[in-house]
Amino acid sequence: MRIGLINAYSTLNLGDAAIYSAFRKLLPGADLIAHVQDERPDPTLGVTFLQNRPTDCGAYISVGGDIFNNSREWFVTKAFLMNLAELRRHSRHTILFGQSIPRSCHGLSFLLLQRYLKRLAAVCVRDAESHQRLCAAGVPTRLSYDVAFVLESSPLAEAMARRCLERLLIHPDQAAVLSVRGFDSMYGHDNDAFVSRMSRLCLGLSAAGLRPVVLIQSGAYGSDNDLEVAAAIQARAPATAILNPFADSPAVPSWQLAMALFSLVGVVIAVRFHTAVLSLAAGRVPFHLHYSNKGRDLCRRLDLPGCDLASLEPSAVLPAILATRGRRFDHGAVREQVQRDFQWCVDQLPHKP
């Protein structure tokens, strides 16, 4: 069956790339198609990327993370309306799986969203706050986890991750891998304060005998590009290395290289949500500096170490970060739940893949 992944964003964000590959794994016999903004989408993800939005499909899956962000909170943006239009086109043949409803979606935008979600074959979100909001609005909704929990690394990815660390002259046991991001009006964080805090954290990690490595999780568009923030942190904490999985032609998917890296290193510090998810899927406990409901929920439901990014005081959290060194995570139960929940959603479609 031909299945369209709608509301797809970019393969230059390894969290989104992981989501696309996760659906490839869950639907091994399907012909998966999608449209993204990229000029040259990653060819290693198992998805055929078209020049235009998917049409003429037997089923559609609304994918991505916080795609229902509404950056002008008291109005409704053009991008938001375009995402809603995708849900409307083939609503009875569409499921929404593994997304979050960000807090910027409220008022008129949330009223519109709930109206269209009620028409879908199935809705399953990845955080309790989104689940509670939709259920309270009368949208039949299932609660699961992020779909990327079904993914696995590979021997080739592990070999490449080792080579990346060797080029940086860093032993895996000494590495502390961090993700970062830029912040804009959609998130209530000050970018300069974030850079200052993360720089002090990197200096603290270096003083503790670790080598900070900023992983570029996104090389996409606008504030969703980590390169400028990473360079600013490195300027203030010169011992900090930068690892960019998008710099070379991909032999393995960016998300798989990241998973392999997380499984090798001593410490993982997740600002970005999918750093936490992929680290857990690789069997390692991260320290999660969460900035939105999806990260807070992940920490709460899985009892993970972490704190709200807004309250980060680097010297105060450093002992807790160091205490995560080498901690393992058994991801089996979470992975099985995602698989069960996805199958339930698929079973609600009129024509099952």
Which percent range fits the helix content? Answer: 25-40%
- Distance linking N and C termini: 6 Å
Q: Please give the oligomerization state of what you see.
A: single chain
Beta content comes to: 5-15%
- The ordered string of helix (H) and strand (E) elements is EHEEEHEHEHEHEHEHEHEHEHEHH
Please summarize what this structure is.
The protein is 39% helix and 14% strand.
Provide an overview of this structure:
The protein is 39% helix and 14% strand. The chain is α/β, with parallel strands linked by helices and 353 residues long. It is globular and about 60 Å long.
Structure characteristics:
six-stranded parallel beta sheet; 353 residues; single chain; alpha/beta; seven-stranded parallel beta sheet
Q: What's the topology here?
A:
Layout: E1 2-6, H1 14-26, E2 31-34, E3 48-49, E4 59-62, H2 78-89, E5 94-99, H3 108-117, E6 122-125, H4 128-136, E7 142-143, H5 155-167, E8 175-179, H6 191-207, E9 211-215, H7 227-236, E10 241-243, H8 254-264, E11 267-270, H9 273-281, E12 287-290, H10 293-302, E13 306-308, H11 314-322, H12 332-347
